Amino acid sequence: MAVILALLAMMTVPAATAAGGASMGGTVSGLQKTIQLTAPASPLAFADVPPGTPFETEINWMAGQGISTGWLEPDGTKTYRPLNPVNRDAMAAFMHRLAGKPDFSPPPVSPFADLAPGDMFYKEIVWLSARYISTGWTEPDDSKTFRPSQPVSRDAMAAFMYRLAGRPAFDPPAVSPFADVTKDNTYYHEITWLAAQDIATGWPEVDRTRTFRPLQPVNRDAMAAFMFRFNSKFSAV
Q: Whole-prediction pTM value?
């Protein structure tokens, strides 16, 4: 029996020493180190936004602020779908949340012919209208429509953000910062304001000009960037 105990002692001491010391404390320290090394990484906010994704920080900020919840997929993960265009109804929800979810009681009768009180984001869309951030379209029959499932264009997004900021005083530049946005553009004031705030930087082109691409839909990753930068300037959240 003494021989067996001696052999066990010889086997235990090197293991304890390798873990950080011959004492019991050294063994516990080694166990903690092993746990730290093998612990899984923090779960992604969105399965389709891995580290290194363009606008990763801004998208994860959107999730952390509760501005975007994404989609729950059949496998239990959540996705953000960063390259999908932002529809106008989702944009209304984003802006309402960016503003801190202000109290608002929507009317029982919709101001828009294509929007019913039971529709998704009804409250947020009508709030956007009541704040004159989005007025929708006047149709040939004099009704108003919001077109909730239509993607938001970049020029309209500039206008929405300018209005959400409270329509601050701004003198638009005499020369446009964007080759594809002339002074007669409907939203020239709002687009150049967005650029002056560094909320939108546009694209550098091969001829060394910059373009804004005003009629292009806003993708969800770019929307996250716009909102993150807007919040850093105006502290909407």
A: 0.79
